[in-house]
Batch of 4 targets.
Target 1
Amino acid sequence: MDRPHLVPVLWCSVPRRGCLASMAPAPRRSEPAMSDLQSISDLLTTPGNLGRIVAATRGRVIDVSQLRRDVYANAECLRASGCKRGLLITEDTYWAIVGMLALFQMGAEVVLPQNATVGAITSIQEHWDVLVCDRLPAGQVGGIILQSAGEGSGELQPLDATKCYLNLFTSGSTGIPKRVRKTLAVMEREAEAIELIAGGNVEATARILGTVTHQHLFGLSYKLFWPLCSGRIVDGTVHELWESLLAQDLRGSVVITSPAHLLRLGPVNPLPAGRQPSRILSAGAVLPLLASAAASTVFGSAICEIYGSTETGTIARRERHRVDLPWQVAPGVAVEIADDGTMWVTSPFLSETTHHRCDDLAERDINGGFHLRGRTDRVVKIDGARVSLAAVEAGIAASPWVANVALVVLPGDVPALGAAVVPSEAGRLKLLEVGSFRFSRLLRQGLQDLQEAPGRPRRWRFVEALPVNDLGKTVQRDLLALFDVRRPTEPEIRAVRATSDGIELDLFTSPDLQQLEGHFPGMPIVPGVAQIDWAVKLAARHLELPVGVAMSYQVKFHRLTLPGTLLTLKLDLDAERQRLNFAYRRDDVVLTSGIIRTCAP
């Protein structure tokens, strides 16, 4: 593809470890200098240093000697299977290392799916021949389960890093998984750049922990290859919950995480100085400034955001302390921006080309670096995950209940997908039978094996026809109008039932409620004052509550009320005593209850 007129942003050469990256206007591409990080081949074959700790997993400490034994034993098992392209799916990062190096050792390629769902595995079935795992994924039968070796071991052979291939997959604009082929040499080069970005104040034997999986490039590069090449310790556990990670001794460690996780950090007391990690690295989406500041307070250090893609690897980084702080290009990378905002990257972390056109639009900053200005394709970031709108639409359209569908990204602090669906004739009958809420749940369940949670729409609209312009194309503005993207101030009423003393209302507390703003960042909770206000307004609306010039109330909060849940509000009006009794519950659990006294005019 010919490149248009480009404006260079920055070129950073990769000096030897310990030196600062030099920055100058982009010259012709040259190979960066090699640092003194250890190659994977040397790790497996160089005599000595057998006692170096490489990983900690499941209560075990793994040294180089044990790693070599595990790699050799599993390589022999894979060789006997005739594997040529191993589909590697592991929950534990240490076993990802063993499986990967065992496949390289016996001359096979590594294939990493986007996730372990049946749909993701099936969609790339022509790219692999043997499943390699630490435990069988749901829906899979047969495969080689990685095992710990005994004391005996043969001799491992040196690896040619330029001929060891990893195959990753990312969402193409068509919804069909796009293969990205990288070599071990490329991953080692990126590890050198990561050392320059993040290794400065990190102890040589620090532990690298994370909330992100190694199945994606960010976790693979930062949580697996960087510590393996730099001599640091890989923590095998993928800490999906903060409770698990914060229970660890984080002193001097590095935490590899994502905005999706940092936004869920919640109200946590700052870690004492003796338990603080040395670095926090985040990638996957842009981290909101308030969330960044809150996390920095908890961990005692600034959050280093990483920007990149599966195709390019690391492109840029920043430690943001203001909204408009630009991204700074990573060591070894050149970024150029065309007049139309298209961004081109020249990088040593690209395997099959010298330059790459990104799907993000960018704007050059006059003081250096660049700002991101949206995307050019139909792959969007939802909750830190890349989601192909085309793939989700295809998954929904596959249902016999659906005649047509269009997706829209609903704006907000936490963007979500909305689906506008035209039901088929069978779908209309089903919709009449079960109602819109259950119908949407059934369609969402149909995506369970095809999409992870961010790729399943949270809001649904069922319409006679999709809004189109005079050219027959769907209009984004009109699609958004179907969802009334103005943030609501009250819960959505799903049902109203009369009782002997009042009414019961089924309510849905939308995650977009205005009252959730700042209450609390990362862990939104429905404020008590909002619950009281809703009780009064709904009683006035449905029970003709005489709201007067004075009001008092007594309230007890039994449990936290979270957004995105279905609640039942029971309202009992005692008109003679000018008293309203109310209770919010989820299923049979009372969340909030109280008494509101009114003074009629």
Target 2
Amino acid sequence: MSSAPKGSGAAPETPLPPGVLRAVQLRGMFVQASWNYRTMQGNGMAWAMLPVLRRASEERRAAALDRHAEHFNGHPYFDSVALGALSRLEVDEADPETIRRFRAAIRGPLGALGDRVVWATAVPSFALLAAVLYWMGVPGAVVAFVFLVAYNALHLAIRAQGFALGWEAGTAVGPRLRGLDLTGRAERFAALTLALVGVVSGVLLAGGRGVGALEWPWFVAALGAFFVGYVGGVRLWRPTAIVTVGAVAILLALGSASLLSG
């Protein structure tokens, strides 16, 4: 391994073969496979980095495995950023204490960013779009396919681009992430999704498949959702995301049961 750069800026003096980096990325898909209450994702992170750590001296490899198996609790998709940056630090043979401090500092922000972008925005938005497609009469199998393609395309892109960003930026990955404004993009995407849901819902309620076809539970739910959204605005989006998706699922079940019984 090289000892010149220390994890940021210029490329390592001895670049790793692409196959090694790909192996780390693929292993990163399974960081939660050995999740436990003591180290959480720590064992998975250490296992994912083995292809890089094997190229170190035996003494450094043993110490590196120990520190990367320590407690780590980020986000399973955005952990790829940490894997890239930590791999870069190990390749550059950065000071072990620097690596440990960087590892501890990055896990919380990555977890919060992933929660905001993925769990609180992308998943509810994709679920709402899927519900609208189903409401419009698109076959259920097609709706499920569209949802799975959109969701998996997002998380695979986050994993691939996140690892590349971490490897390139090293310890400077924080400012690079802030420059991408992922939270702002997620908020704009959520706003567009809600606007689309509102437009399509209005068209369906006003059309031939309107109140009479949807029956009173759908109409009351639509009015209630409009009122809550009008009063609360985007402030209510995050805390009510799970409730919203659950309500949509219940309404879909009621509508399906009504159609089957009819």
Target 3
Amino acid sequence: MNKKEPRNITLKQVLLWFTGLLMASLLVVNFFLNVSSAKSYMQQQLGSHAQDAATSLGLLLSTVIEASDLVSAELMIDAMFDHGYYRHIIYYDVNGQAKVLRHAPMKIEGVPSWFVEQIALEAPEGKAEIMNGWAQLGSVSVMSHPGYAYIKLWESLKVELVWFALIAAVAFLVMQLVITTILLPLTRIENQAKAVRNRDFSYRAPMPKTRELKRVAVAMNSMSDRLGKMFSEQLSLIEHLRAQSFHDPITGLGNRAEFDGRLKAELESQQSAAVGSLCLIQLGDFGNYNQQHGRRSGDDLLVAMAEEIKASVAPIAGAFVARRSGSDFSVFLPGVVDDQADKFASELLHKLSGLHLVKQMCRNDVLHIGVASTLTNMPLPVFLSEADMALRSAQAAGPNGWQRYVTDSSFATPGEAVRQANEWQQILLDTLAEKNITFHYQPVYSGDRSTILHHQVLSRIEVNGELVVAGAFIPMAERFSMLADFDRLVVEKIIGLAESRGDERRYCVNLSVHSLADERFVEWFLIKMQQHPEAARSLIFEVSEYSLQLASEALERVVAASSTLGYEVSIDKFGVAAVPFAYLQHLSIHYIKVDHSFIRDIQHSRDNQFFLRSVLQIAHGQDIQVIAVGVEFEDEWDSIEPLGIDGAMGYYLGRPQEHTD
């Protein structure tokens, strides 16, 4: 599970703390200087007050002391003591003996004792001699009471603290505003760096007003432009070289080599049983058409036929088309058999016959289609031969038409005969009602085979006591619009499995294109992931590259939600959907699984080796892991391992098992 990263302090926080502490220090120092200054002033005032009082009292007492009137002297001293604010007033005779003493306790109302202890005002003593002419009659000592000074200082302190708090708050807000404004360009540059990390090179940082940050923004924008250009050029180069190797230059379809390689991988794969139909399409007398109408018109005819064929197969996920040679085309329809294949051939023949350029030939015996179907693996030459025999039968019949190759064993699977469509429908309904689906798990190993990255989840259903692989029942589920229901069942069961185990195992589950195209399924899926966050973090959801053509908006939504909900996303059948690889820039996917047609016999194909090496280079630059699918022989593994593959799966590395232990 992912560990929570420690939170680092930001530059804004550092600047705010530094400037805040600096401002606070200045205010505190200023505060203490003000208190010290006020204390010194108060002490001077106390001393001056005491000395003035002593001098004045000495003059007043001189007449009564001369007359030895001690009572009048006491009355004068009492009058001054009662109407002033003194700590003590003392009259000494000429011998230094205290004759009159008035003393007030050190009691201060409204001032905390700790404040009095900390400030500790020292009230100076004022002294004056009592004279009669040149004769000394005695002396007086006066000390002002510091209580009033303490009260004034305490009130001043409270006012200072209020102003200190207000100034500090205003200063902090101003500093925050100023620092935020100054650092805003840095935030935008940071966002640009994050966008580059996420393969988005379109973000541009605005130009700051400060010279230094402006230079950084210019450098970042320039770097982003260069990276985006390099990435686009890299993608264009790979697609161009791939097109040169595997595509027909006139129609843009795959060529014969690419088609046969992919079909061979489908038919001979040990991963699953091949189910589907092969159509061979031939326009007769094409050489004569070129002579009569010119080569350019002939090319236009081929392009028109190619566009019509592509449009016809577009709704069928995983279908692929090629121009074999001249006016010959081939189509493989995965999961399409029986009456569905018949319907496809009939409709395609009707559409091609209606093309304006075909009608120019003024013949109704030039367009023919041969169809062969299979429910199990078979050698490529045998499958092509069956479709070719069906094509020859259609041509022998004369007019534009199609024929299907049929034998008693054409639709036999090991141990059972083909079931009729209504039987399959009931089987699938019962399976959904009883939730009777089981899993096998195939390990996906790391590039050095030291660890298992995750387990590929392979669905099985039980029919008459036998387990039927997904390749056999999924086409029927698609036919009866049950794929979303089966995907719901699989997701629910794998969530339960992940939660019950509670360990570090990770599981990869395939979601069909039809489910992604169902808005209700996508809503349900995202809610389910939100409800089970722990399970979501152990799951990888795999979607076919064809999803980018048939359900691109839903796929983008699922990928975007993965960062917050915790699951990861993998693109399956990478490289065969004729989709520009530019989507790797803006989709934050985690894995791409290279289609097994590129892995089959890769030791003999320099083109496929170059393709895989280029994909690795691009993917690693986007922080995407590349996994090779269908590694079934040692020679294939020996060829891909040195390329730096991130992971691989196939019968050579590990067969599907009932348990992950």
Target 4
Amino acid sequence: LEGLTYGEDPSGGVVRDRQFIHPRFDFAFTAPPLLKLENTTEALLGLDMNGTTAMRFDVIQSDQSPMASLEKGWIESVKIEQIEETLINGLSSATGLGTNSEWSFRFAAIRKGSDLYRFIFATKTLTPELDRQFLESIKSFRSLRAEEREALRPLRLTMALASESDTIEKLIAQMRGVDRPLDRFLIVNGLDRPKIKSGMNYKLITAD
């Protein structure tokens, strides 16, 4: 198992802690801290523990400006209002707000080349602090530096022999590139409780 690839193929974009990094499309951004991220073939999805706050991030090919795209609307029965044009790290962008009977939304569109990147944040109650986190995430969208593209490698499984002085905290501190490292450690090692034994080998998730 030593060196076995774990998780996503970097060419399809990878989640590393709160960051989503896509080397092929040359961008990265940081998600709000309350969201657990899942990378699917169609979109990057995020959901909080209570199911009351969510995110969808995707990309489409479009010749529309970010503002025109928002004005057209993205969700049936949700009119996007308070649309503002802006520049995000040098990229033409627009943000807006919307509501329906159950949800409040923060929208953003960012033009990069021929692609339009779309953020949709949805929450049951849009507080000023929550909206600040949404906007902070949107504004973190940027192109990758050359060294970042070169350094991005798949996550791999490595083996660690537990000594008498080791604790589970010491072992998971060696893990890289994953959210909820304790949960991941338990899953890859087939454990149902956070307890280790001296002299046993344990799998760790690390980055090359």
